[in-house]
Amino acid sequence: NTVMRDCSVCGTAAPLAQFPALPGCNHQSETCVACFSAWVGAQSDAVAWDKITCPGTGCEVILQYENVRQYAAPEIFARFDALSLAAALSNEPNFRRCQRPGCQSGQIHEGANDGNIFRCVLCGFRMCILHDMEFHEGETCEAYDERM
Known about the structure:
Blueprint: E1 4-6, E2 13-15, H1 33-46, H2 65-71, H3 74-90, E3 95-97, E4 106-108, E5 117-119, E6 126-128, E7 133-134, H4 141-147
Antiparallel strand pairs: 1-2, 3-4, 5-6, 6-7
Domain RING-type: 3-148
Protein name: RING-type domain-containing protein
InterPro entries: IBR_dom, TRIAD_supradom, Znf_RING/FYVE/PHD
């Protein structure tokens, strides 16, 4: 016999396997997979990407990356993933985004070989790291500073 449970949101009876259990929650899952997915989508529009919580009544456990990946609709997860990546990269002091219009690439620039010159691995655009702009071709940073 399959054990069934009623979803607290839609009221539909479903097997226990259809009720996501989250690590860290101290309660039985109350929400079926479909309603859980809808909750994640609604929360992604209402709260910060890293503040989506369990839909359980009074539960404040924040969903982890894998929970969102597993239960969110693909377009919701894609947005969550992009925001998660952007947050991680914002903490990397050597990460630079390419400034060429239309290029969405970025990379970590240590400067060991190229110094202040950033060359985008995707489009080849060259930027001056010191001045945070397109590279001033044929002119050192010092000469550029004097000219400006």
